[in-house]
Automatic annotation (TrEMBL), chains A, B:
Its EC number is 2.10.1.1. This is Molybdopterin molybdenumtransferase. InterPro entries: MoaB/Mog-like_dom_sf, MoaB/Mog_dom, MoeA-like, MoeA_C_domain_IV_sf, MoeA_linker/N, MoeA_linker/N_sf. Catalyzes the insertion of molybdate into adenylated molybdopterin with the concomitant release of AMP. One of its GO terms (molecular function) is molybdopterin molybdotransferase activity. The chain crosses the membrane at residues 283-303. Its cofactor is Mg(2+). It catalyses: adenylyl-molybdopterin + molybdate = Mo-molybdopterin + AMP + H(+). GO terms for biological process: Mo-molybdopterin cofactor biosynthetic process. GO terms for cellular component: cytosol. Pathway: Cofactor biosynthesis; molybdopterin biosynthesis. It comes from Campylobacter geochelonis. Belongs to the MoeA family.
């Protein structure tokens, strides 16, 4: 099962915990390395929420003399005299002794005199200093991802630089004598390396960097040399070479280099021949050679591990509740990855989930995935299920 | 209403339609500028889906002599003689005259003789050339976004370069005398420019580039000069200066420069004082000064417009069905943006959606948004609603 394999991997993960300072405009989707506390009240002074007239509610229903206009950004401090009002713009500082704003649209003005009736409530459109955020209050926590809303909150506090966690250095390989690169020319008996491009794209889309290091030929020495050459990376991801075929040298090479197995398979279809090895602080993932399996395990297992290494707080995928549409049986001795299309609250499979794990087009058709539990033998029409959005 | 405003803007949009070649590893999240057709069958040759033995089903239940091993990538063409079988690895080319593979786990082998019983079905684990994709077939359409699954499909075809649409050049301003930059020091009466950082982050997260051009002071001349200085951009986004206050010079300056209004407000709360102007192929968005309104209108209106300018096919947001939790009333003469938290299939509001449009923290708490229709006066517990995920 994916969850228990992930937990086993997480137990073996060393979080990097290294951080660096970045300016706010380079901080999007980075992971906070420190808790962030408010440095100032938000708003920082009492101000008007609307364009209108500032007055004191004691004088509601009485004629008020309009004595001037206060603009946003005006640094002077104004004070209301009795029976007076100020025109005031959104965001402008409230004059002393005022407690209410009537918006232009609801104000009655004749000859520079303002009349406000009781349909306006006391404190209308009056924004109090600190009503949203108080200085010293915790705003964001270490491990949170800096999405645009959080960037906005930091900017509103005048916080222009933040410490974020550095992300792991990742090397990506592919393996197999039958594999050639998309920029080469495949003969009739060769197949293009689709896995590495997909792995790179999955990582990049999730804001992880990686370097592609090439195809490892099916030989013990080549495998050993390739893994050794990437010893300065935190994580190595390769695909192929993990099943029980004669020409799989990955496990042997890793053992030779002192790596220990963290997981040597996952009870899931597709994706069973997935291995994860560890040496000191380094992890090696050997993903299945079959494209669909490599893609899904990279998404479901490698990505959460990279987040964990980066000390990201939220490691779970966003989940959506859906109604299953159709009927499907699956083997209950394992977990099954069911690709589907989520639309209008319903999740429908692609070809009743019958296709080879070497295929790619079902991934293109799908926009979400259901992961069955071990012991679960199928789904019936209208079952409530929890799905994970894909691309 | 947002939808009708968007339609009006879309009618006034000139798609750029300019394209450039990018290599596959730089193509993630770019927009395809050409339909893509398969250049080769997938798989390109008959091959084994598993590690096992290739044989001819006519000889099921008979002892078969294992005459050799075929590895993936082996360029030789093998042929089965009668009463013979080959060991075969995943992805290896099927020998001629074979039609079925029995996986190692289900094979009975004694003294180099293979026995297969009828529990194995004919054509088991036999992948036929072209069974997934046939050469010439359309794979992807112009206007599709290159997500990781599509990158994988292109790589599997040996397509290493694609034409993608260039995206619009976007300039971002802020406006207002009361605004100072997060990297400056605000006095008691000034407020930090949160809008520009958020707009930049929203665009960047959605893979649009933009350049920040600074704060426009509240003066007609400054506004005129700022807009003129950005005449080489396809889209200008500014915030503030769009309401009816005395110190709003944006509309005047745009008129002076020959811009025509496309929309001069949106019947939505928050976000009403949103304007969009057009001159030749250029668009200017004037977003509200209030942070929450600026954020949501940038997300809900500006982003789809940028996609449209880039000829992206899918302009609608992903929508999720949810059960409303709680009870809420809102004014039915307009559309209302209701921030909320989606969890376990339920959508709950933040403080019953009561907070000022100058606030930012509700955006940080929310992970999704409900947009009410004009004429809709509220939601009751357990109502089925469609929501849009935020960050």
């Amino acid at each position: 099962m994916i969850q228990s394999s992930l937990e086993l991997i997480f137990q073996n993960v060393n979080e990097l915990k290294k951080s660096k300072k970045v300016s706010l405009n380079g901080a999007i989707n980075q992971i906070l390395a420190r808790d962030i506390f408010a440095v100032k009240n938000l708003p920082s002074f009492d101000n008007s929420a609307l364009d209108g007239y500032a007055f004191n509610y004691d004088f509601v229903n009485k004629p008020l003399k309009i004595v001037g206009t206060i603009f946003a950004g005006d640094k002077s401090v104004y004070e209301l005299s009795q029976n007076c009002a100020y025109r005031i713009m959104t965001g402008a500082m409230m004059p002393k002794a005022s407690d209410t704003v009537v918006e232009f649209e609801k104000a009655v003005v004749e000859n520079d005199m303002l009349f406000v009736d009781k349909s306006i409530k006391k404190h209308n459109a009056y924004r109090y200093a600190g009503e949203e955020v108080k200085a010293g209050e915790m705003l964001l926590r270490k491990g949170e991802v800096l999405t645009p809303d959080k960037i906005m909150l930091l900017a509103s506090q005048g916080i222009d630089e933040v410490k974020v966690f550095t992300k792991p250095k990742v090397a990506v390989f592919s393996s197999g004598d039958e594999i050639v690169e998309p920029w080469q020319k495949a003969s009739q008996s060769e197949i293009y390396n689709a896995n590495s491009s997909a792995i790179e794209a999955i990582l990049k889309d999730a804001k992880f960097e990686c370097e592609y290091k090439g195809i490892i030929k099916d030989s013990f020495t080549d495998t050993l040399n390739a893994i050794s050459s990437a010893s300065n990376y935190d994580v190595i991801i390769t695909s192929g070479g993990a099943s029980k075929g004669d020409a799989d040298f990955m496990a042997e090479a890793l053992k030779e280099l002192g790596y220990k197995a963290v997981i040597d398979s996952i009870n899931v279809r597709p994706g069973k021949p997935t291995k994860c090895y560890k040496l000191d602080e380094k992890l090696v993932f050997i993903l299945p050679g079959n494209p669909m399996a490599a893609f899904l395990i990279c998404f479901l297992v490698v990505l959460p591990t990279l987040k964990k290494i980066s000390s990201q707080k939220e490691l779970n995928f966003t989940k959506i509740m859906a109604k299953f549409s159709g009927n499907i049986k699956f083997k209950d001795g394992r977990s099954n990855l069911v690709l589907g299309i989520y639309k209008d609250g319903k999740f429908s499979t692609i070809n009743n989930n019958k296709f080879g794990s070497g295929m790619i087009t079902p991934l293109v058709k799908a926009n979400s995935i259901y992961i069955s539990k071990v012991g679960e033998s199928g789904l019936s029409d209208n079952d409530d299920i929890e799905i994970i959005p894909l691309y």
